[in-house]
């Protein structure tokens, strides 16, 4: 069974930075497509960024392009999200997700394409 555990969230002021981590266990991470999603209270879950199995391709939501960077280290079974220039609207629960099945990269932001989820780590950005 694939297990994902996130860490690195916290409370920061606007303009600050955080690095989120997601550790994979129970499966070879090199076989997993991975992504970060976020959800704020009262809002739908949205895709933030995704990365191919080997890390060669990355995808971002327009709202975070230029500010967030997704990466992975398969030797450490770890996915990362470097978050910079944080805005209050970035406040949300950030969750790591993984898929062991193929789907078109254009659908990376669809939560239904991901079978495995972490419990999330909270990011709170104050003005």
Biggest β-sheet strands, sense, barrel: 7 strands, mixed
Task: Indicate the structural class.
Answer: mainly beta
Oligomer: single chain
Element string (H = helix, E = strand): EEEEEEEEEEE
Helix content: under 10%
Counting DSSP E segments of at least 2 residues, the number of strands comes to: 11
List the uncertain runs. none
> Which range does the strand content fall in?
over 45%
Rg over alpha carbons: 13 Å
Terminal CA distance reads 40 Å
> What form results from the Cα inertia axes?
globular
Count of alpha and pi helical runs: 0
- Give the overall average pLDDT: 96
Overall description:
0% of the residues lie in helices and 48% in strands. The model has no long low-confidence stretch (mean pLDDT 96). By secondary structure, the protein is an all-beta fold. A hairpin with a 4-residue loop joins strand 7 and strand 8 (78-83). The protein has strands spanning 3-7, 10-13, 18-25, 33-39, 46-51, 58-60, 68-73, 78-83, 92-99, 116-117, 121-126. Strands 2, 4, 5, 6, 9, 10 and 11 form a seven-stranded mixed β-sheet that branches.
Question: Layout of SSEs?
Answer:
Elements: E1 3-7, E2 10-13, E3 18-25, E4 33-39, E5 46-51, E6 58-60, E7 68-73, E8 78-83, E9 92-99, E10 116-117, E11 121-126
Parallel strand pairs: 2-11
Antiparallel strand pairs: 1-3, 3-8, 4-5, 4-9, 5-6, 7-8, 9-10, 9-11
Keywords summarizing the entry:
about 130 residues; mainly beta; seven-stranded mixed beta sheet; four-stranded antiparallel beta sheet
Please outline what is shown here:
0% of the residues lie in helices and 48% in strands. The chain is an all-beta fold and 127 residues long.
């Amino acid at each position: 069974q694939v297990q994902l555990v996130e860490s690195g969230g916290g409370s920061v002021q606007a303009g600050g930075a955080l690095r989120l981590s997601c550790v994979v266990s129970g499966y070879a991470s090199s076989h997993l497509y991975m992504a970060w999603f976020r959800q704020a209270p009262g809002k739908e879950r949205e895709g933030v960024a995704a990365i191919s199995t080997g890390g060669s391709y990355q995808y971002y939501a327009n709202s975070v392009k230029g500010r967030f960077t997704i990466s992975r280290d398969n030797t450490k079974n770890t996915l990362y999200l470097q978050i910079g220039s944080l805005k209050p609207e970035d406040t949300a629960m950030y969750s790591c997700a993984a898929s062991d099945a193929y789907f078109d990269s254009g659908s990376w932001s669809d939560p239904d394409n991901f079978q495995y989820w972490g419990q999330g780590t909270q990011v709170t950005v104050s003005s």
